[in-house]
Specification:
Elements lengths: L2 H9 L4 H13 L3 E5 L2 E6 L2 E8 L4 E5 L21 E5 L2 H23 L15 H9 L1 H9 L2 H12 L4 H16 L8
Antiparallel strand pairs: 1-2, 2-3, 3-4, 4-5
Helix pairs in contact: 2-3, 4-5, 6-7
């Protein structure tokens, strides 16, 4: 057990019981516990396997390479990242009931890592909005900072900017996010 995660749990205002149970399950599978991006992260052979995150409406167990897993129960949910999948929980009872399944999925993720399996990423699955592209063309510093972001962070911005129906809204979103991009931060990073 990592003392940094102990501190994280002491400060947790919501989902503490769910996080503690998910922590015990992850550790029981033989994963190494770390605190990354301010969240409990569990690794195998120095690679991220699962991350526990609390959100407003749920607590989730995120499988970093969940796209590689078999999901016969259909419980892995897609979201912004191409590789990752998550399982949401709204109470500790759900976690307890799913414990055998979660352990099986974690062991499968560990085996995928041991075998060196990689997720095949789509190259630029979404087009860069015109408003972002014009700012990138105007500012070499912004372009360099955007290119240094992880593919997931770049995609997060692209989806956020593209989600606006009007050009002026897309432009406003780009303007507001420029300082975050220049600081190497993703859309939802603290």
């Amino acid at each position: 057990m990592n003392p940094k995660v102990d501190e994280y749990l002491r400060k947790a205002k919501k989902w503490r019981k769910e996080i503690e149970k998910l922590r015990r399950i992850s550790l029981a599978c033989g994963l190494t516990e770390e605190l990354k991006w301010g969240k409990p992260c569990y690794t195998f052979q120095k690679s991220n396997i699962v991350i526990i995150q609390g959100f407003k409406e749920s607590c989730v167990l995120l499988f970093c390479k969940g796209a590689l897993l078999n999901d016969p129960k259909g419980i892995l949910k897609k979201f912004g990242w191409q590789a990752a999948r998550r399982i949401p929980f709204t109470n500790v009872r759900e976690v307890v009931e799913m414990e055998p399944i979660l352990k099986a999925y974690i062991h499968e993720a560990m085996e995928a890592e041991r075998a060196g399996l990689k997720v095949n990423f789509k190259k630029n699955p979404e087009p860069v909005p015109e408003e972002l592209q014009s700012k990138l063309d105007e500012s070499p510093a912004l372009k360099a900072a955007f290119d240094r972001l992880t593919p997931g962070r770049r995609r997060g911005y692209i989806l956020y900017f593209s989600g606006a129906k009007q050009s002026k809204t897309r432009e406003s979103r780009v303007e507001k996010c420029m300082p975050r991009i220049l600081n190497g931060k993703g859309l939802n990073d603290q």
